[in-house]
Here is the input.
Amino acid sequence: HMNVLLAEANVDYNIVLEMDEINGDFPATDLVMVIGANDIVNPDALDDPTSPIAGMPVLEVWKSDTVVVMKRSMGTGYAGVQNPLFFKDNSRMLFGDAKEVMDQLLTGLRS
Here is the structure.
């Protein structure tokens, strides 16, 4: 369904990478901004064989230098499991409405 949303937002499909194409890039990435995602960036899918999401393909964003996660709350995702990404030393939580937060960040960067 993400491809449909990206197409509706006029995102050029040529700049969109598949998960297996991007995961290898994260160790050389300075900053990853996660907007509203939860289960798809949960390291327990790989690290905890007892997790309900064990074996699920995930974006390995925690391998980057810094991760900024934008969410409205610390709530769980669809799977209903806590995400240890939020507590990693290289992760920062930025709470609020993602559009408003991004607008504020962009305004600050432009000034």
